[in-house]
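User: tokens in, sequence out, please.
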């Protein structure tokens, strides 16, 4: 039986973040709805039947707290991730008390957001992608955060783990350095793109990825994971 594609409604008014989320979530295979204002977001929440909502706290017409209250008052049980620049404990408690299921502060890493999305969708009973990924003799378990090659444990940093998971979920897809920066380090990262090369180098060393490599350099473009036969 085919796995139902999860539909995610993004209620956010900042163009940079909208495009960042739209592109990234579609990469992950989600169906994405965008609402740049609260009123439109409420309409789509009722008519678009989303499986999860990413809700900005500060919107030009109706703030995220009021939107969440309205949804819960109407009996909606759709998981809500509150997205905001406010970082105080009081703000987080306020957001969660209105019925939000999770709270993530800006700036944020896309991989952290996706991990929270997966956790909430699993909790809601949505059948998503498998937690165990396998390419050649490498296995990656997203639940236990374990990586093994040829049955032997490989110890990775969180960034290295996120990179490997991204490549294993999307074999053959070419990721530019800019895309990897956005996905792993966040849309606001202002450092040099060669930090990607450094992390890729460390990852290759740890998984003993020797020529012909699994994680291949696509000159002029970026990186892609290919099986040894390809």
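Assistant: Sequence out:
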């Amino acid at each position: 039986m085919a796995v139902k594609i999860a539909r995610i409604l993004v209620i956010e008014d900042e163009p940079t973040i909208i495009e960042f989320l739209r592109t990234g979530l579609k990469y992950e295979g989600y169906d994405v709805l965008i609402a740049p204002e609260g009123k439109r977001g409420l309409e789509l929440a009722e008519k678009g039947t989303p499986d999860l909502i990413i809700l900005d706290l500060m919107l030009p017409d109706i703030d995220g707290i009021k939107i969440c209250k309205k949804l819960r008052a109407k009996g909606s049980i759709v998981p809500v991730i509150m997205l905001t620049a406010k970082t105080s404990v009081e703000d987080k408690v306020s957001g969660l008390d209105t019925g939000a299921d999770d709270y993530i502060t800006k700036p944020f890493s896309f991989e952290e957001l996706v991990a929270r999305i997966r956790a909430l969708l699993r909790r809601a009973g949505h059948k998503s992608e498998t937690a165990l990924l396998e390419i050649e003799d490498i296995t990656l378990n997203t639940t236990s955060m374990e990586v093994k090659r040829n049955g032997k444990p490989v110890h990775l940093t969180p960034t290295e783990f996120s990179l490997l998971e991204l490549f294993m979920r999307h074999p053959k897809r070419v990721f530019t350095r800019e895309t990897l920066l956005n996905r792993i380090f966040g849309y606001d990262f202002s450092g040099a793109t060669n930090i990607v090369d450094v992390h890729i180098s460390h990852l290759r060393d740890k998984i003993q990825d020797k020529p012909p490599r699994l994680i291949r350099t696509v000159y002029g473009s970026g990186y892609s994971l290919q099986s040894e036969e390809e």
